[in-house]
Design a protein that fits this description.
CATH superfamily of one domain: Histone H3 K4-specific methyltransferase SET7/9 N-terminal domain
Oligomer: single chain
Number of strands: 41
Shape: elongated
Helix content: 10-25%
Length: 660
């Protein structure tokens, strides 16, 4: 419904003039100047002289009481008061002419030009031409009464364009007048009251065509009138209240009647008829633009079919079909209170099925199947409030299964199986919030088992077994934390399946007590303390071929720093026990511990590589295990475009005027 806006914006020039005049009046300096000027004007002199004459006339009735009150005039004596009276008459006569004769003549036959901020304005009465002081452009032509704009006049903008022509009262539009666009075209002609359209008038578009003709009140459409479109066709004819359709009226579209009957607050309400192509398509009671009950057919503004079916209480209710603006089918099935509810089928703009199944309150609810824009199945199973909920299967391109199992609020939750795009199993186990959590098995992209055990937040956590993705053989059995070895565990060679390490781990490397084995023979290489993957603390190095101890003592960062003999000697010395030959035996055994016994070949350790943290401490990890915390999954949310969720509420029957 088009509503007329307050034309206050077109009166800015008038208020600018008023502000400037009021500023002039209130300025103390200008007031003083005006007082001095007025004291010496003809009007001021005339008023003073008139007062003196009045006083003198009063004294004429009193005869002179002394010779001094006479003036010698030759043969006669003339009273002084008479002489004064004659002088006053000579002075007053011109003043009276200036005060009472000149202004009416000037206002009727002459126009004075003065700047709009002139100090003469507050006391001026007559025709004026007010100009901008700096540019000299005329801003107003008309009449002033004691400095106020009253009567007929013309208002101009600073570009010289006429903005208003008509009658004024105290600087505001009052009575008949014409308002113009800035470009010069007529905006409105008719009656005004207090700067607003009031009474009969006609409103125009910028191109000069009629927008509205009829009655106004306080700037709004009020009473009988006719509203037009930009092309000149009638939009509405009937009664208005406060700028809105109200009362009896007829609504048109492209020159054809679409509704006739009662309106309220701009909408069809009460008894009325709906039309399409000149034929009645609905007749009965309307409320707030909605047809209340029965079977009806609705069309869009362009004439395309929108809906056919049952209506109750102004909303789609029962079996029906909803269409797009282009006439293609949008939904077919059951409605309740204006929403999809019950069995139905939803379509995209090309007529392709998006969803088929059950609805509740406009959302997918219960069992159903959703489809992609190319017709492929996306999901089949249970829904709740428009999201995957309960048992269901998610599909990829070509109909391949991506996931099969439990859902909660659109994401994986509970037992399920996840598959790759190639169709290979990636995970089989428990999910929580879309991530692996609980007991499960993960597989490589090729489908080989890489881990079985416990998960938390998408990562390996707790007891588990890791497998080589190439051979499928076990490489680790033990504790995990945040996806890495942490706690006690066993490492195995994927080729021989022999243990390569058993003991403690921290952040994926050897840490704490542990035993390192030769992957070929299975014999011990080292037994003792580790720290961050290196020999650190008490330990023994073995010859893998003989199984004999090669070095024993205290290690630091993979290097023997104190042999066991030195440790024993230091312990004996500390206890006060004197063992003969002990000192020589300690130094012969290696003292600093930087060399192995002759003939010992470990193939690993500090004698071959001083960077023992690299040689010993890097526990082998499964090299190509998938990232459990980056779970590959088909997007189950509505943002993917794969699940087409309907509007929460189905559109109702709306005959509201859409002229804008």
């Amino acid at each position: 419904m088009s509503k007329f806006n307050d034309p206050q914006g077109f009166t800015n020039m008038v208020y600018t003039a008023v502000i400037r005049v009021m500023r002039t009046v209130t300025m103390p300096v200008q007031s003083a100047i005006r007082y001095v000027r007025n004291a010496f004007t003809g009007q001021s002199v005339a008023r003073k002289a008139a007062n003196d004459v009045t006083e003198s006339v009063k004294n004429l009735t009193k005869p002179p009481e002394s010779i001094r009150e006479y003036v010698d005039a030759g043969q006669y004596y003339v009273a002084r008061v008479v002489v004064y009276l004659m002088l006053l008459v000579l002075i007053v006569t011109p003043a009276l002419i200036l005060n009472y004769v000149v202004p009416p003549v000037r206002s009727r036959f002459f126009t004075r030009t003065m700047p709009i901020d002139s100090v003469d304005i507050p006391s001026y009465t007559g025709k004026v031409r007010l100009t901008d002081r700096s540019s000299g452009k005329v801003l107003f032509e008309g009449a002033l009464q004691s400095g106020r704009i009253n009567g007929f006049g013309k208002l101009y903008d600073y570009d010289g364009n006429t903005r208003y022509e008509g009658t004024f009262q105290m600087e505001v539009y009052q009575g008949y007048g014409e308002l113009y666009y800035k470009e010069g075209g007529l905006r409105y002609k008719g009656n005004f009251s207090g700067n607003q359209f009031d009474g009969q008038g006609t409103l125009y578009f910028n191109d000069g065509s009629v927008q509205y003709e009829g009655s106004f009140a306080k700037g709004l459409y009020e009473g009988p009138g006719t509203l037009y479109a930009g092309d000149g066709s009638v939009l509405y004819k009937g009664d208005f209240v406060k700028g809105l359709y109200e009362g009896q009226g007829t609504l048109y579209k492209n020159g054809e009647t679409v509704y006739e009957g009662m309106f309220k607050a701009g909408n069809p309400e009460g008894t009325g008829r709906g039309y399409h192509d000149g034929s009645v398509i609905s007749e009965g009671e309307y409320k707030d633009s909605y047809f209340q009950k029965g079977y009806t057919t609705l069309y869009s503004d362009s004439g395309a079919l929108l809906y056919t079916g049952e209506v109750n209480d102004g909303k789609y209710d029962g079996e029906g079909s909803l269409y797009n603006e282009d006439g293609s089918i949008l939904y077919e099935g059951h409605f309740s209170k204006g929403e999809y509810d019950g069995e139905g089928t939803l379509f995209d703009q090309y007529g392709q099925t998006v969803y088929e199944g059950t609805f509740a309150k406009g959302l997918y609810e219960g069992n159903g199947t959703s489809y992609s824009s190319d017709g492929e199945k996306v999901y089949s199973g249970s829904f709740s409030k428009g999201e995957y909920e309960g048992e269901g299967t998610l599909y990829g391109t070509g109909g391949r299964v991506l996931y099969s199992g439990k859902f909660a609020k659109g994401i994986y939750e509970g037992q399920g199986k996840l598959y790759s795009e190639a169709g290979n199993l990636l995970y089989d186990g428990a999910f929580k919030a879309g991530k692996y959590e609980g007991d499960g098995r993960s597989y490589s992209e090729a489908g080989t088992l890489v881990y079985e055990g416990s998960f938390l937040g998408g990562e390996r956590e707790g007891k588990g077994k890791a497998y080589d993705p190439g051979s499928g053989r076990m490489i680790y059995d033990g504790d995990f934390s945040k996806g890495v070895y942490q706690g006690d565990g066993f490492l195995y060679d994927p080729g021989t399946q022999k243990k390569t390490y058993e003991g403690g781990f921290r952040n994926g490397v050897y840490d704490g007590k542990g035993i390192l084995y030769d992957p070929s023979s299975g014999g011990k290489l080292y037994e003792g303390e580790f720290s961050l993957g290196a020999f650190n603390g008490a330990g023994k190095l073995y010859d893998a071929s003989t199984g004999k101890v090669a070095q024993e003592g205290e290690f630091r960062n993979g290097v023997l720093v104190t042999s066991q003999a030195d440790l024993n000697q230091a312990a004996d010395a500390a206890s006060g026990v004197n063992q003969s030959g002990g000192g020589n035996s300690g130094s012969n055994s290696g003292g600093s511990g930087t060399a192995a016994e002759p003939g010992v070949n470990l193939g690993i350790g500090p004698s071959q590589n001083t960077d023992s943290s690299a040689a010993v401490g890097s526990a082998p990890q499964e090299s190509s295990a998938p990232q459990e915390n980056s779970t590959p999954r088909r997007n189950s949310g509505s943002s993917s475009g794969r699940q087409h969720r309907p509007e929460e509420k189905g559109p109702g029957i709306n005959l509201r005027n859409r002229e804008n």
